[in-house]
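Q: Convert this sequence to structure tokens.
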Amino acid sequence: MRYAIMLTTALLGGCRARAVHKAPARDTTGLAARFPLRRDSIDSLARAPRVVGDAAVGVFWLHAAATLPSADQAALFDDLRYYTGQIAPALKVKGIGLLATRSDTLYIALPGNRRRAILLSGLDYPFGYVFVDPGGPERILTGVYPDDDLLDELRAYFDWSDDSAAVVPRTTT
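A:
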């Protein structure tokens, strides 16, 4: 009996919780440009659930897209990659990260070491964009958006001003 207790104690001592590594989400603009349709070494990085702590645009292409015909899959993926590349400079100027993921869950870091999950599976299309501003609600756009429509959506969500000069509103009486 003594040996069983010692063995159980040793096994329970070896089972301890892993420390949660809270690394900020890396900017994966380069990864978004090479976002693979097939499984390769980059795929393991993109499949890890992302934790977003700052303003970011997530580009997602889930494995459910494999149900599309291969010709459509390739054309849609090329369009998604092209339009993402067109908006990348504007995001960089505004200081907004561009993240690529194949994971069906995205996490938003909240105060108090908490997280809020955004589930991307089960949407209209298994590819698209997620706009994240940790202080507010997220915006999910499914499908492929042309760069001008995507920039309009970004301006509305992140409240970008079209004017370069700040104008003080007049008070009317």
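The chain has one domain: 29-156.
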